[in-house]
UniProtKB/TrEMBL annotation:
Record domain Glycosyl transferase family 28 C-terminal: where: 200-352
Keywords linked to the UniProt accession: Glycosyltransferase, Transferase
Localization in the cell: Membrane
Organism: Acetobacterium tundrae
Protein name, as recorded: Galactosyldiacylglycerol synthase
Domain of life of the source: Bacteria
Residue ranges of every copy of the Diacylglycerol glucosyltransferase N-terminal domain listed in the record: 15-179
């Protein structure tokens, strides 16, 4: 039985969910699969620095994060030096883990881990094929290392951005960012038929929540038609409380409102919705594409989420709203012109047809066999 190690990191939920989705599919076909949170396995202080530091920066100092994102995308000697230090810190723990575990294939779902593993392999620390799952739609330079054997990416657009950076197109496979099995099932029969509303909007902000959620919800309450609003606040307990307080203060007579914290049935909630308002994280974007749920994007973190938003808009799968208050008129417009929602959904369906978890599994098999 072939053994696969999957390395992820907890900077947001997307990398971990992609790892778990891969584990699901690999276990189904008989592989022995183990998932490791790379930084937690190595050093508690390092994990706190990277994962907690990332969360604090993107939420509280997004401009600084944007500056760092752009700087690392054009890495100079200083940025490369940081990753050399990171590699040295991880080396004493991650290499023995690989050597003792003897995996036949290593998969990574995080750019930092991809960089570290590529560097270690380049230095001869191990000789196991490495597959990198790119969890956003425009490549970042951190992903690019000579000793990575293959990349699975979300789209032909992603592949093209990699080729432009000098990566051999023969090792890039646009099979789609892995999503949980439940998102591949058609649950539209579960859609609640609420005859007295013109449609349903799903409002989400990802696992970290967003300071802009309250403004977005307030804008939806001003939509002139009667609509159903499903709000998912993720792990942000404070945001959930603020949303509930807003409901108690505002007039919601012509709205049907559901408020949730963290949920495990996002797939079902998407099936019940006509459109989703959300940050365009890589995994959320992919889940929406697979479910053919058009996106309205009023907020995003700079860097990869901004690039994901551009990809969606260019593909006719999403609409960006520059000011959150404009959500009111945009939602009114879309429900008055439902053919636009229909066309966006069709564009997503066309894009979803290109993805294939079975081909990703076949790629894993070929990497193990080589």
């Amino acid at each position: 039985m072939a053994k696969v190690f999957i390395f992820t990191a907890s900077t947001g939920a997307g990398h971990n969910l992609a790892a778990q989705s891969l584990k699901e599919s690999l276990d189904e076909v008989g592989y022995q699969t183990e998932v490791y949170d790379a930084f937690k396995e190595i050093n508690v202080a390092l994990d706190r620095l990277i994962t907690k530091g990332y969360q604090q920066m993107v939420v509280n100092i997004p401009k600084l994060y944007e500056q760092m994102y752009n700087q690392f995308n054009n890495m100079n000697r200083f940025q490369k030096g940081i990753f050399q230090v990171l590699t040295k810190i991880m080396n004493p723990d991650i290499v023995p883990l690989i050597k003792s575990g003897k995996p036949d294939l290593i998969i990574t779902t995080h750019p930092f881990v991809t960089n570290v593993l590529g560097t270690l392999k380049e230095h001869g620390a191990f000789n196991v094929p490495v597959l990198s799952i790119v969890t956003d739609y425009k490549i970042h330079t951190i992903y690019l290392k000579k000793m990575i054997d293959a990349y699975v990416v979300g789209s032909d657009y992603t592949k093209q951005t990699m080729v432009e950076k000098g990566v051999d197109e023969k090792i890039i496979f646009p099979y789609g960012i892995p999503v949980r099995q439940t998102f591949l099932e058609n649950n539209h029969l579960n859609k609640k038929e609420t005859t007295d509303v013109v449609g349903t909007i799903l409002l989400m902000a990802g696992s970290l929540g967003s300071k802009q959620m309250e403004k977005a919800f307030s804008a939806l309450l001003k939509v002139k038609e009667k609509i159903r609003i499903i709000v998912v606040c993720g792990n942000n307990v404070k945001m959930e409380k603020e949303i509930r307080n807003l409901i108690s203060r505002e007039t919601c007579q012509n709205k049907i409102v559901e408020v949730h914290g963290f949920v495990n049935n996002v797939s079902e909630l998407m099936d019940q919705s006509d459109a989703i308002i959300s940050k365009p994280g890589g995994l959320t974007t992919t889940e929406a594409i697979v479910k053919n749920i058009p996106m309205i994007i009023p907020f995003y973190y700079p860097g990869q989420e901004e690039e994901n938003a551009d990809y969606l808009v260019d593909g006719g799968m999403a609409i960006k709203v520059d000011k959150i208050k404009d959500l009111t008129s945009m939602v009114d417009f879309l429900f008055e012109n439902k053919y636009i929602i229909k066309r966006m959904s069709e564009n997503m369906s066309e894009e979803a047809q290109k993805r294939s978890m079975s081909k990703t599994i076949e790629l894993c098999q070929s990497l193990i066999a080589q």
